Amino acid sequence: MSAKLATCGYLSADELAACLPASERMAKGPVAVIECVQDIPCNPCEQACPVHAITVGVPITSLPVLDAAKCIGCGVCIARCPGLAIFVIDGSRPGGEGTVQLPYEAWPLPQPGDAVVALDRRGQRVGDGTVEKVLNATAQDHTAVVTVRVPKELLNTVRAISVEGRAQS
């Protein structure tokens, strides 16, 4: 397990550097970001990916590897990750905003159009966002996927939201 994750609850800058997609890939369209650094037996993300862009392989304790060129940014993997460690970011929109799709397990769910506080991995406020979409299908097993519009410079920073003072866990 990551030393930073074990002691502080979030990844170090070095660990994040290995997870984040290149800016050129982000500009092409939605792409998954897998922030998993735990060597545990887990592979639902690999099994959920419809285009086989995620590989865990053998042994099952290997860390998932994303082939960003294959990823279509569908977000199916987000709700399947029991560690809530997968996000989809989209920097391809014209203008200064992009989107972050994130897992959300708080209640009540935010609604499209809601103004939210954008939080970083430590739960610190980094800006404001607007909810665009909320998916909460039965197949997602009570993990909703919320799409939030934020300034593009925050796409690699925003990993949670707070609605009316409620922090997402």
Commentary on this structure:
Strand 9 and strand 10 form a beta hairpin. The strands form two sheets. An eight-stranded antiparallel beta sheet has the order 1-4-5-8-7-6-9-10. The chain is 17% helix and 30% strand. The two termini are 20 Å apart. The protein has helices spanning 3-8, 13-19, 23-28, 44-48, 76-80, and strands spanning 31-34, 54-55, 65-66, 86-90, 97-104, 115-119, 125-135, 144-151, 160-163, 166-167. The relative contact order is 0.17. The mean pLDDT is 91. This is 4Fe-4S binding protein. Residues 62-91 form the 4Fe-4S ferredoxin-type domain.
Outline of the structure:
Residues 62-91 form the 4Fe-4S ferredoxin-type domain. With 169 residues, the protein is an alpha+beta fold. The chain has helices at residues 3-8, 13-19, 23-28, 44-48, 76-80, and strands at residues 31-34, 54-55, 65-66, 86-90, 97-104, 115-119, 125-135, 144-151, 160-163, 166-167.
Task: Report the β-strand fraction as a percent range.
Answer: 25-35%
How are strands sequenced across the largest beta sheet?
1-4-5-8-7-6-9-10
What is the total tally of β strands? 10
Low-confidence stretches: none
N-end to C-end Cα span: 20 Å
Protein name: 4Fe-4S binding protein
Organism: Anaeroselena agilis
Keywords: Iron, Iron-sulfur, Metal-binding
Pfam family, one: Fer4_7
Write the layout of secondary structure elements.
Layout: H1 3-8, H2 13-19, H3 23-28, E1 31-34, H4 44-48, E2 54-55, E3 65-66, H5 76-80, E4 86-90, E5 97-104, E6 115-119, E7 125-135, E8 144-151, E9 160-163, E10 166-167
Antiparallel strand pairs: 1-4, 2-3, 4-5, 5-8, 6-7, 6-9, 7-8, 9-10
Pfam family, one: Fer4_7
Protein name: 4Fe-4S binding protein
Domain 4Fe-4S ferredoxin-type: 62-91
